[in-house]
Fold this sequence. Notes:
The protein is of the alpha+beta class and 455 residues long. The chain contains 14 helices and 10 strands. The chain has a domain at 244-349. α1 runs antiparallel to α5, α6 (155-179) packs across α7 (197-222) and α6 packs across α14 (430-454).
Amino acid sequence: MPPTLSGTAGFTAAALRVSRDAVYRAVWRWHFYAGLLCLPFLVLLSTTGALYLFKTEINANVFAHRMVVAPSDRPPLGPDRLIFNAMQAVPDGNPLSYTEPAGPTASALVTLAEGGAKILVYLDPYTGDVLDRVAADREFFGIVRGLHSLTLFGTAANALIEIIAGFAIILVVTGAYLWWPRGQAPAVSLRATPRRRVWWRDLHATTGLFAGAGLLFLALTGLPWSVWWGQELRAWSNRAGLGQPTQLWAGKAVSTVPMGARLDSAGWALEDAKMPRSAPSGTPTLGIDRAVATLRDMALPGGFELALPLGETGVYAASAYPRDVTSQRMVSLDRYSGQPILDVRFVDLGPVARAIQYGIGIHKGEFWGRANQLAMLAFCLATILLSVTAAVMWWKRRPAGRLGTPPWPRDRRVVATVTGLMLGLGALFPLTGLAILALLGLDLATQGLRSAART
Length: 455
């Protein structure tokens, strides 16, 4: 007998359920892969990021002995004298930069090169006393930043950040699909008790609902600093006239040295812009005291960093990177005449560069004051909780002696479609795409070995 209408409808509904289950399993497998790669790094990034959000507060309390000075009615010493005192503390050091005190209770900072290392010397600007000296690679927040970017372990390790950021986006996208209510459970709930895996699943899903948006934002705003994708984005935006204000460099002699090589606070948009050159005139050089006085007269925000000129064509290059993103500014002075060669303000940047600087400022908790810091801290803590709940869920469901990877569905068309979508996301972030291909190769090789072992 031919199938009845109700029988056909039932068959179609059953087939649809099977298809949805296949898609769910394929997405779950990729979610598992992304989590397997991301979770340890997400805990590290969230922990170091949470610390860096409160850099100013931690420095003012934990490291007050070198960061905070007693205010005085006497005028501060000139930077030339402070640099001289710093050189007495590091006799073999060559001064590289001077950082102006950010306020009346802030110390001054001189950076010197000693051999192949950088030494930071903190001084009381009123007395000239050396408060502390520390190697740049041993300074607390230098280590935190190196761990956060993995540059502490070299350029190759830094490339992992780009891969992890791409997988974090896949983690959020696949997690949103897995969380989407399908009638079996409420969207937000905590069922059973912590002894049951379902409780951890609900806590993971509920946390992910909040943390996912923050993780997506942090991944996207962190990617501009990545070793390949970020460089390509900067190069593209510059070619398109949407990044560096190249017209300000027109007709000016430049060196081969990028701004970022001399200034720690150059900012994303100008990090690889070439340093301009002074024009030797046979006249005496400006001198550090007059250079700083000129920059103060130009109303640079307090706490600006000043790179000292190297060679007869070197310039005084200053960068101000205050918490107010819109007040960022970079100035280069001719070392002989003291005239500004470059004066780049935030409004001079192209729209892409401004948008990225805004994103980085919010990422670092610098834009909306305490509210920004607390919001980013909440995202960091939620990401750590997300990672912990994922690890507990995996531990509770893993088979003895096995990794517990969710099985592929039987429908190979679903597998190919979902995998194709993952590769499409990977194409946006090529290093992540290469990692996806490596995972696929490893997966196929593992399945092949298992098939061979069964025969």
